[in-house]
Design brief:
By secondary structure, the chain is of the alpha/beta class. The protein is built from 20 helices and nine strands.
Length: 469
């Protein structure tokens, strides 16, 4: 039985017009992901469907665990065919989870498998997909080209040499821009045991011996400059909660020295370090014309036993709860007061913060550009149909949805570009519903332009790395 018709998720005639005539043709500007630049530079090929589809995908891993699959078939030492079988047997029972739609979109768009997945067909699907994987044109770069991706923003630590970004930039056969993003979280997490070791790495990367807080700030500035020279125009920061705690420079120097000496650091001291450092970084980003991304709200590594077995990013993170309104406004205001607030995108993992963020960004807009401060797309637990709808409606109610920079993959998989199609269909369904309910005019040309702007044009304008469609 065939699944996913051409009008998948499009329930009105207006939605169908907007998607098929305006959104579908647009290229992809994937400004935030966790893809490997090494794999792009080397044009990696895959041995089988499991390697490209399951490895590193904690969304799928969580579903398999919920379905009672043993860990050896998820992250363990079972062979790839056995792992694939367990995943296929899980898919039919993920109805209502975005994985059900994502899996079918990925099978359809990259493997031309259009049937509804049934657990008893796992071996047929295995053989069919592996024929595609072994074909000459199934490689990382060809997947990117097939997906019509114009820009990829990877996620990179300040200590990274960016050697693979250099190789990609020098390769005339790669038409997609692959740009680094600056992710300095390890320099903010001063309570973690690895902080001292990381300072040594950062100092080596910046050719500075970090013996105090001033050296640390100089090293960060040097690395921002280095990243800028290699095409970086975006930073990214992950916070379990957003801290805001003022402190003097002298106090920060004492706190930093304690951390560098391996002494115990309180939560309050860490908050002061993060606040001061983020303000310095925000000023740097403004100076260089970067956009600053704030990903706020996961509580990580909740299962201690599994963390000890598998380490981080293995599917044991969930939604955090905390106060956000006051520290978020205070942080943005501390930069705005000196006219040094960079372009900023704020993402929430907790949907209870949708309206809060949508209203906050309106406090800090500027005539220097449209939509300078953005409410980022539904992220992680919110990048499903209802989550995307609620994020866009909150933004529309409190701000200007028409200026939204749209979707990203936030993924480690080269098959995740179908999430852009998923988003665009949901976007068109939202506007189509408004048209059918006579809340907005049936002006397809004008509304179609808004759809295209949200799909690609707004991001292309916003990130200062404009490319031709």
């Amino acid at each position: 039985m065939k699944f996913l018709t051409d009008d998948f998720l499009l329930n009105t005639e207006s939605a169908k017009v907007l998607y098929h005539e305006y959104a579908k043709q647009m290229p992809i500007y994937d400004y935030h992901c966790h893809l490997s630049p090494k794999e792009i530079a080397e044009d990696k090929r895959f041995n089988n469907i499991t390697e490209v589809w399951l490895n590193g995908d904690h969304y799928k891993w969580r579903a398999m665990r919920a379905f009672g699959v043993e860990e050896k078939y998820i992250t363990g030492d079972s062979d790839d065919k056995e792992k694939f079988q367990k995943w296929i047997q899980t898919i039919p029972y993920t109805m209502g989870n975005p994985l059900y739609h994502w899996a079918h979109l990925e099978l359809s768009r990259y493997f031309n498998y259009t049937e509804a997945v049934k657990e008893e067909n796992w071996e047929e699907i295995w053989e069919h997909c592996n024929q595609v994987v072994q074909s000459e044109d199934f490689s990382v770069r060809n997947l990117i080209k097939k997906s019509n991706v114009k820009v990829i923003g990877t996620t990179d630590d300040p200590v990274d040499t960016l050697e693979y970004h250099k190789k990609i930039a020098e390769n005339g056969d790669i038409n997609t821009k692959v740009l680094p993003s600056f992710r300095p979280d390890k320099g903010l997490d001063i309570r973690k045991p690895a902080f001292k070791e990381y300072m040594a790495q950062l100092g080596q990367a910046a050719n500075i011996e970090i013996r105090g807080f001033d050296d640390f700030l100089q090293a960060l500035e040097d690395r921002v400059s280095y990243f800028h020279e290699h095409g970086c125009r975006i930073s990214d920061h992950g916070f379990e909660y957003l801290p805001y705690s003022e402190a003097s420079l002298e106090e920060l120097k004492v706190i930093f020295t304690k951390a560098l000496n391996g002494e115990s650091i309180t939560k309050e001291e860490e908050d002061k370090h993060k606040t001061y450092t983020m303000k310095i970084l925000g000023e740097l980003y403004h100076k260089f014309g970067w956009a600053m991304q704030l990903h706020i709200g996961p509580i990580r590594n909740n299962n201690t036993r599994m963390f000890n077995l598998l380490g981080p990013d293995a599917g044991f993170d969930s939604i955090n709860d905390f106060e956000l309104a006051r520290p978020l406004n205070q942080f943005l205001d501390s930069l705005e007061i000196n006219n040094s607030l960079p372009k900023t995108i704020i993402y929430t993992l907790n949907p209870m913060h949708n309206e809060l963020i949508a209203s906050t960004i309106g406090n800090f807009q500027s005539s220097e550009m449209k939509g300078k401060v953005q409410f980022g797309t539904g992220w992680w637990y919110n990048d499903q149909k209802e989550g995307m709808m609620e994020q866009m409606k909150a933004l529309a109610n409190a701000g200007l949805l028409s200026l939204f920079v749209g979707m990203l993959t936030d993924s480690r998989s080269f098959l995740s570009y179908t999430r852009h199609e998923y988003f665009r269909r949901i976007l068109c369904q939202l506007f189509g519903k408004w048209i059918e309910e006579e809340e907005i005019p049936r002006d397809y040309e004008f509304i179609g332009k808004i759809i295209q702007d949200i799909s690609f044009n707004n991001a292309n304008r916003y990130f200062s790395t404009k490319v031709e469609r």
